[in-house]
UniProtKB/TrEMBL annotation:
InterPro entries: Ig-like_fold
SUPFAM superfamilies to which the protein is assigned, alphabetical: Cna protein B-type domain
Gene3D superfamilies associated with the record: Immunoglobulins (2.60.40.10)
Protein name, as recorded: Lipoprotein
Region (Disordered): 21-41
Bias kind Pro residues: ranges: 29-38
Length: 533
């Protein structure tokens, strides 16, 4: 593949030859050392680093004056003779590498923005430029001729910051992004001896801006995850995320849920204090908590604005959240982080392993939609000795501690009777009149109807194999939609633009299914029936 994005750095040997005439000395200068004969085996080694820019904890913007050189870890390093790869290595945890060549030969070094490993634990992660035909980022040295059987060649990926703006190639950005993924993998290796990750492409470009449009031109709208691809903002003086480590880890968390765990979140706009669809609340709260868990840093910081000097932070350990409840991402992140960490202000201290076990085990296969109800049910099942502490976390967030996966005992309806029960249960022959609400927003076109009460959740009990119909009957001209799932997998549905009765018919095996039904254009009441054909 043509690599159209190449970062060049000048590499010096560290040998300086002088004239020796200073101070009136008449001593003849020493001749340069005699190089070994051409063709002898040679080792080229060194340390790879990138410029790491921290956040200013007072403004939450980037602090370029605090830039340090950090090791480039776990990446592929190639020794190239022309276009031929002569040898390769993977940099270690301190950024060191070593490759073999020959004296008298001209080479260059290439550091690829990728983390790759095969075997019992495996992964394949690349950082590419979505505005340059998805070319993978690499860091190239200048050409050099090997003059010793042992040579040191260090490389640094520069931030590109010129003091008041970016003035040169932002070579460090892809490697800081990868380093956040390295940290994730390093932590997960300790809890999963067979850690296997699906291939992931991370798209970053200095052209990626918070505007909607053509992704190939950088108009990505926001940093986001979709189908084994993460897109990250990079437009200077607007919003850059390459140094916002918690943002990167948050999006990686969605990738992890999608592949190794499970998320039923429908996405959409969300913010602190929002009363959300419980699936969205869990997914976004998990992403925030995940970034704190991986880094052991509860402060989620996001920089933006002129010179990247502005920003905001979220303390995911904060238990005093706005509008707490089973529909709150703030409540979810607080609970998950408190389960993990061991500070004295928390009643629970389970660490990462139990959280990981639930996410990749029972939560992945739950009959219900993924929510704080399903997660807390399973983590209490697997850690009965910690039930009192876990219940205290739920109570502190105004969530009924006597949970099951269906939220059966939950009573908090936020003053809206149609919010409860969390699931309406149906057996064949049942008909119920259900109402959605717009009290907490969600019906704007860019909200995805993802607020509390915008949709109704159904629990469908199918007693035997056969043909069944889920019928949605509008009282007037409402456009009704419905979707049936089995353990998170889509089974059947109808979202056609229609104002007539919707019949979702298909063959279903015996079991427990979930459904999500809604009135598309506005809040409404409508009849729902489960019919055995």
């Amino acid at each position: 593949m043509k690599l159209s994005k190449i970062f060049m750095i000048t590499i010096f040997t560290g040998l300086v030859y002088g004239c020796g005439g200073g101070g009136g000395s008449s001593e003849e200068p020493s001749p340069p050392p005699t190089p070994p004969p051409s063709g002898e085996a040679a080792t080229i080694s060194g340390t790879l680093t990138f410029d790491k820019v921290p956040h200013n904890t007072s403004t939450n913007g980037l602090n370029y004056n605090g830039t340090v050189e950090a090791p480039i870890r776990g990446v592929t390093v190639q020794l190239l003779e022309g276009t031929t790869v002569v040898d390769s290595d993977v940099s270690d945890a301190t950024g060191n590498y070593s490759v073999d060549g020959e004296t008298g030969v001209t080479y260059r070094l290439r550091v690829r923005a990728e983390l790759k490993q095969t075997g019992t634990q495996s992964w394949d992660i690349e950082v590419v430029d979505n505005t340059s035909s998805n070319a993978q980022y690499v860091l190239d040295s200048a050409q050099f001729t090997v003059s010793s059987t042992s040579e040191t060649r260090d490389l640094n990926a520069d931030s590109g910051w010129g003091g008041s703006s970016y003035t040169s190639t932002r070579a460090a950005a892809p490697f800081n992004i990868l380093d956040r993924v390295y940290v994730i993998i390093d932590k997960l290796q300790d809890v999963d001896a067979n850690l296997t990750l699906d291939p992931l492409v991370i798209n970053w470009s200095p052209n990626n801006i918070a505007e909607s449009g053509d992704i190939a031109n950088g108009r990505i709208g926001t940093s986001f995850y979709t189908q084994d691809q993460i897109y990250l903002l990079g437009a200077q003086d607007s919003d850059t995320d390459e140094y916002d480590g918690h943002v990167i880890i948050h999006e990686w968390g969605h990738y992890f849920e999608d592949n190794n765990a499970r998320s039923d979140s429908i996405g959409g706009r969300h913010g602190g204090g929002d009363r959300l669809d419980m699936r969205v609340a869990f997914g976004e709260g998990f992403g925030n908590a995940w970034s704190g868990i991986i880094t052991d840093d509860p402060f989620y910081r996001d920089s933006f604005g002129p010179d990247q000097s502005q920003g905001f932070f979220i303390n995911v350990e904060n238990n005093n959240v706005s509008n707490p409840g089973w529909f709150s991402e703030g409540s979810v992140q607080s609970i998950l982080y408190d389960i993990y960490d061991g500070t004295s202000d928390d009643s629970a201290n389970l660490g990462l392993q139990p959280i990981y076990n639930v996410l990749t085990g029972q939560q992945r296969n739950t009959e219900a939609f993924t929510s704080i109800f399903s997660f807390m049910t399973y983590i209490k099942d697997e850690n009965p000795g910690d039930a009192v502490a876990l219940n205290a976390l739920l109570t502190a967030q105004n969530i009924n501690p006597n949970v099951d996966i269906w939220g059966s005992n939950e009573t908090d309806n936020e003053g809206q009777p149609d919010v409860i029960p969390v699931y309406n249960e149906f057996n064949p022959g049942d008909t119920q009149n259900l109402c959605t609400i717009s009290t907490f927003g969600g019906f704007a076109s860019n909200d995805n109807r993802n607020k509390l009460g915008n949709r109704k959740f159904l629990r469908l009990n199918i007693p035997s194999d056969g043909s069944y119909t889920l019928r949605l009957t509008p009282p007037g001209s409402q456009d009704l939609d419905g979707f049936i799932f089995l353990r998170g997998e889509f089974v059947n549905g109808d979202n056609a633009a229609s104002t007539s009765t919707v019949n979702i018919t298909g063959n279903l095996a015996a079991g427990t299914y979930t459904a999500d039904v809604q009135s598309f254009d506005e809040a409404a009441c409508f009849d729902v029936s489960l019919i055995q054909n």
